[in-house]
Amino acid sequence: MSAPAAASGVGPVREHAGRGWRVRHRRTAVVWAWRAVLLVVLVVAWQLLSGPVLDPQFVSSPGGIAGRLAGWLQDGTLATNTWITVQEIVLGFLLGAGAAALLAYLIAPFRVIWDILDPFVMALYSIPKVALAPLFIVWFGIGTNMKVLLAAVTVFFLVFLNTAAGVHDVDPALADAVRLMGGNRRDIALKVTLPASLTGLLTGLRVAIPYALIGAVIGELVASNRGLGYLISNSSATFDTDGVFATLVVLSVIAAVLNAIVNLLGRRANRWKPLDT
Questions:
Q1: Residue 182: in which H helix or E strand, if any?
Q2: Cβ partners under 8 Å of residue 67, min gap 6
Q3: What digits encode the pLDDT tens for the residues 131-141?
Q4: pTM for the whole thing?
Q5: Residue closest to 151 by CA, chosen among 201, 103, 94
Q6: Distance (Å, rounded) from C-alpha 261 to C-alpha 35?
Q7: What percent of the residues of the chain are helix, what percent strand, and what percent coil, each to the nearest 5?
Q8: Which of 20, 23, 219, 256 is deepest in the core (most CB within 10 A)?
Q9: Reduced to 3 states, what is the DSSP secondary structure of residue 202?
Q10: In this structure, what DSSP letter does residue 5 have?
């Protein structure tokens, strides 16, 4: 029986039981294999049914979508509009998530202040963000700033509420232990509250990613002449179903990439936690 081997650097202690790569990653490989099979089956079924059963004018087809994407790639339409939307999503996400996390860590530890602000926060959170688009056009015009700020507002409350919940769930015994060892408020914030509440923060970031995308695309749909939202609006106005579906595919890929980045950051941030059994 091999002795437990400590992982190099920081992080949980891993037990290397002499298992090979295939054994350790078998479940992940099976899940991804079945995902690929399911995707291929759905795409093939869609392609076969489009035409004989389904009207491609309304539901498009994988072949039509691929053709539209190839055309947009050749003339630069896809790259130009995708880059604009990606900028709006990333800037809106960073602005909204950064402000939300900062305010949550400043306010949530003080329960009296939190209790006073809670009904106002929930009232603002309940406002449909799409209803803010006309107001944002009046305030900030129809340029990139309006889309970035709309995405930031859409993201803000999700990250703020999840981070605050993470702060509230911190075990008070951990803070008491730091106080008994002579720690001050700063030590408690940096060595207890921040690491113990990271799960709430990362959950908020993960949930907020599609909403950043939604906020940016809504802004482009309401008033814009560029971006993926504009491509959807323009394609639907000309009954180009292939173009609408092609844009939705691109948006899905962007959301998947951003979600993978947050998951990677989450695994690195949670290395101090015990491994799942």
A1: none
A2: 242
A3: 888 888 888 88
A4: 0.75
A5: 94
A6: 20
A7: 80, 0, 20
A8: 219
A9: helix
A10: B
